[in-house]
Specification:
Elements: E1 2-8, H1 12-17, H2 20-27, E2 31-35, H3 46-51, E3 55-59, E4 69-73, E5 79-82, H4 87-90, E6 95-100, E7 103-109, H5 117-140, E8 143-149, H6 173-184, E9 187-189, H7 190-194, E10 203-204, E11 216-217, E12 220-225, E13 232-237, E14 249-253
Length: 263
């Protein structure tokens, strides 16, 4: 069984100063998908992750201190792909894929529309392009596990104040409709598959003591191809981990690949 963690760290260097690496060693996942790493390759302590047992792959944005994704793995992938071959997204370091046998694990960071109309338009274009990209990828790689910060709350249960946020980016009707259609195209929201309870969030504003009051949003997901449904064992949110304004999410799932090899 593989334990996969997805975590928007809101700056890998800041998260490491808050004890991220020690936490990783304790939780001991097989694969870690990171988002919003906000670091260039030369700023990342690669050796520290290798010493902890992880082969690590990083895809940074061209703009310093911005975006970026990573994938850390105990098992050597058969293939690793950096980006989607769409320059306007790849320049922002938003997509990284690792193949293990017939299963692919993706670390992805969707754009946020919170900085204004131009970025909201960029986000909506991303959603359309991402759906098209995944539709095509499924023809070649039908067994996908897509992990990351989607920057969308899907349903009212996924946000602490659905009425007050009805016109907020991240909970707009058109974003939520996209999310429904994406899942309907052949994916499972793994957390909701196992847990139907309210008050489960993955991001909290730094304002108004929101985290202590659990006034949050669930915007981080592990979305699993329907073909892998029977392989899923458990999905969790870990709000007690506090290295970021997000918290980690966990998916436990059975799939094979190469025999494990130490890096």
């Amino acid at each position: 069984m593989k334990r996969i963690i997805s975590y928007n760290v809101n700056g890998i260097r800041a998260a490491l100063k808050k004890g991220l690496l020690d936490w990783i060693k304790i939780v001991d996942p097989d694969i870690i998908c990171l988002q919003e790493t906000k670091a260039q390759p030369e700023q990342i302590p690669l050796f520290d992750f290798e010493e902890a047992g992880y082969i690590n792959y990083w895809f940074s944005a061209r703009k310093k201190g911005y975006s970026g994704v990573a994938l850390l793995t105990k098992q050597t992938p058969d293939n690793v792909l950096f980006g989607m071959d769409i320059p306007k997204y790849d320049n922002e370091g938003r997509f990284l894929r690792a193949d293990y046998g017939d299963v692919s694990v993706v670390s992805v960071y969707f754009p946020s529309g919170s900085s204004g109309d131009a970025r909201q338009a960029f986000k909506m274009q991303w959603l359309e392009d991402f759906q098209n990209y995944i539709d095509n990828l499924k023809k070649e790689r039908p067994n996908l596990i897509i992990c990351g910060d989607v920057n969308i709350c899907h349903e009212a249960i996924d946000i602490h104040d659905p009425i007050g946020n009805a016109k907020s980016t991240g909970f707009l009707p058109e974003e939520r409709t996209w999310m429904s259609k994406f899942l309907e195209s052949g994916f499972i929201d793994s957390f909701r598959y196992f847990n139907k309870e309210p008050n489960n969030y993955t991001w909290w504003s730094f304002r108004a003591n929101a985290r202590a009051r659990n006034l949050g949003w669930r915007i981080d997901y592990c979305m699993v191809s329907l073909s892998l449904e029977s392989k899923m064992k458990r999905a969790l949110i870990l709000p007690e981990a506090k290295h970021s304004d997000h918290c980690p999410i966990v998916l436990e799932i059975d799939f094979k690949g190469k025999k494990n090899r130490n890096p």
